[in-house]
Amino acid sequence: MAVTEQAFGQINGHNITRYTLTNDKGFQVSCLDYGCIITEILAPDHAGKLENVVLGFDTLEEYGSNPHYFGAVVGRFAGRIQEGAFTIEGTDYQLAKNSDGQHLHGGPGGFHSAVWKANMIETESESIIEFTHFSPDGEEGFPGNLTMTVCYIVKNDDNQLAISYSAKSDKTTLLNVTNHSYFNLSGDFKRAIVDHQLTIPSSQYAELNEDMLPTGKLVPVEEDPLFDFRDGRTIREGKDSGHPQIKLVGGGYDHPFLLDKEAQPVIKLKDEGSGRSLQIETTEPAVVLYTANHIGGPYAFKGVTAQNQLGLCLETQSLPDSVNHPHFPTSILNAEKEFKSQTVYSFT
């Protein structure tokens, strides 16, 4: 097991460091203390060849403002909140409207743009980077002095990345965090992800309106087969369908799926060409599937031109805008109560 560090540039006068966790099999995860961004995951294909399976850049300058949140931890609230407004314990709060009149991913000064404190930990069986961040009362409009910890953990005997989250606030607040990595199992972005096979153990998805917000309706997937991933399907089947919900979000998926927790769900992603598979287990109640419908642009990932559907996100979290839908699982964190969450990514 090994943890290494190297300088990665400066932002707003802060020195940014890249940390790399490596196990004895060569499996490797690299991340930054800026936004807890995962820049690279090297995982083996069917022949044992190690290649990168997440979208990322080689320089800090390329991340820029990171409008697509590549690899970052997002919060305090992952997803959208209608008009950035909510009420907790009789008090009204107003957040930034940073996405077409709605609040998105914690606002412009959210966790993705923070410089986190990092602590490297090595044991015989694990390599760990522990990131901590203090978010003061009122930051981005959220109540409460919040202390947040995110740990990236690589085990020696498994090609596995575990992400654990913990937090505590001195006021009742909202908290809904996730990692926003874009996966592409073809290796070094050889192909788009439209033919990746995806399985999500979910019987219901959240219908969206034209503002990309949940309408409040949880649709049974058996009534809407293109959203039924329980037995696995490719992204292409939905992308090319012309389904109104898929057209609404730009010709792909950007939808929350409520996980069937009683089934001890495992989300599975597979690329037949490389033989790589990813299995995801989480304590979170939902996952947002985003098929990178809007990331095409005049830039490149390590020499590969950015294009829509070059990666996909599997954002384990609570449902977006949950504070305004009482029948959704809650994202309210009570004062002095500890928040804990874990998501484990296993590559085979």
Automatic annotation (TrEMBL):
* Reaction catalysed by this enzyme: alpha-D-glucose = beta-D-glucose
What domain of life is recorded for the organism? Bacteria
MF terms (GO), sorted A to Z: isomerase activity
Keyword list, A-Z: Carbohydrate metabolism, Isomerase
- Keyword Isomerase tagged: yes
List the PROSITE patterns hit by this protein, alphabetically. Answer: ALDOSE_1_EPIMERASE
One of this protein's Pfam families, by short name? Aldose_epim
Q: Per the UniProt record, which EC number(s) apply here?
A: 5.1.3.3
Claim: Isomerase is one of the keywords in the record: yes
| Involved pathway(s) | Carbohydrate metabolism; hexose metabolism
List the InterPro entries hit by this protein, alphabetically. Answer: Ald1_epimerase_CS (IPR018052), Aldose_1-epimerase (IPR015443), Aldose_1/G6P_1-epimerase (IPR008183), Gal_mutarotase_sf_dom (IPR011013), Galactose_mutarotase-like (IPR047215), GH-type_carb-bd (IPR014718)
Q: Which NCBIfam families match?
A: PRK11055.1 (NF008277)
The family classification in the record reads: Belongs to the aldose epimerase family.
Question: What protein is this chain from?
Answer: Aldose 1-epimerase
